[in-house]
Amino acid sequence: MADDKDVLRDVWFGRIPTSFTLNQDEVTEREAEPYYLLLPRVSYLTLVTDKVKKHFLKVMRAEDVEEMWFEYEGTPLKWHYPIGVLFDLHASNTVLPWSITVHFKNFPDSDLLHCPSSSVVEAHFMSSIKEADALKHKSQVVNDMQKKDHKQLWMGLQNDKFDQFWAMNRKLMEYPTEEGGFRYIPFRIYQTMSDRPFIQRLFRPVSPEGNVHTLGDLMKEMDPAALPNDGEPKRYQVVIHGIEPLLETPLQWLSEHLSHPDNFLHICESHNPPSPVLSSVYISTPPTTTPPLLLSEDLFIGREG
Question: Cβ atoms within 10 A of the Cβ of 145, count?
Fold first, then answer.
């Protein structure tokens, strides 16, 4: 893969300022103050909210505490979706900090999966990586890894260690030069206007004629309505990691650099126009390495490292 490490780091260290508030129906011994946290876009809610749980347990009785879960404006938040995907899907136009409500009872079994421990998150994460590698390399890379290599990927994500994670994940991003890219691009398209979880189909990074497929080619194939006709204003926003890439961006490059740690390219499609509180700026590098991207500032809010 092209070594655009700055892009990889910017994606990894993207943060979302978040305010956690205890649901008003929870029984407490005294008033519960909100808890503020910079949430990593690439992680999972149940993996980074131990401090949130400890904060609210201080004002609650043990008998009133069941499994913790989160919601935003009445929508339960799926812990198995990356945090950045949840934000882009449900709250991309909200005023920061993102306001999440915390619950300790009335778990919505019909909407959420239970997550009793971090081992459940690990199993989900590794299952996603294996699925992605099946699409990219017929599972050859994952199968050649040892158990300690799988653990390195997981520990890198769990402990927010960029170098530890990418030292191993780089193997999953390689491909023979003569093939021009992965076998298929692992992607999921989430739509705010649809009841189905996401769109996921087989799609190659290069056409049978040898032409490089772009983000626009993918969207045209998966959801033609997402792209405006000539002369029409843009009706939809296509967002990855809080940014709106140019539709001309090669899909292979996006998969290598803007995939989540699970190796999937998570794309959010929304009717909503870009938020007026977030300015946008072009960041360009030589065309032989990084295509120009249209970036919105929320990707870099609270960036660490």
Answer: 17
At residue 56, the pLDDT reads 95
Pairing type for strands 98-103 and 15-22 reads parallel
| 82 contacts 264 by C-beta, under 8 angstroms | no
pLDDT digits (tens, 9 = 90+) for 249-277: 999 999 999 999 999 999 999 875 544 33
Residue 305 above 60 pLDDT? no
Question: Can you read off the two tokens belonging to residue 181?
Answer: 């890219």
Does some domain include residue 58? Answer: yes
CA neighbor of 187 nearest in space, from 214, 159, 168, 207: 214
- Residue 54: which CATH number? 3.10.20.620
Q: Assess if residue 31 is contained within a domain.
A: yes
The residues, any chain, with a CB within 8 Å of residue 125's CB and separated by 6 or more, are 44, 154, 157, 261, 262
pLDDT band at 301 (very low <50, low <70, confident <90, very high): very low
Burial class (CB within 10 angstroms; exposed 0-12, middle 13-18, buried 19+) of 172: buried
Task: Report yes or no on 142 lying in a domain.
Answer: no
Greater model confidence, 197 or 15: 15
What is the chain's mean pLDDT, rounded? 87
Find the domain containing 19 and state its range.
14-115
Three-class SS state of 297: helix
CA–CA separation, 183 and 176 (whole Å): 10
Residue 154 lies in a domain: no
- Amino acid letter, residue 172: L
Provide the domain count of the chain: 1
Question: Tokens 């956690």 — which residue?
Answer: 20
pLDDT band at 192 (very low <50, low <70, confident <90, very high): confident
| Amino acid identity, position 231 | G
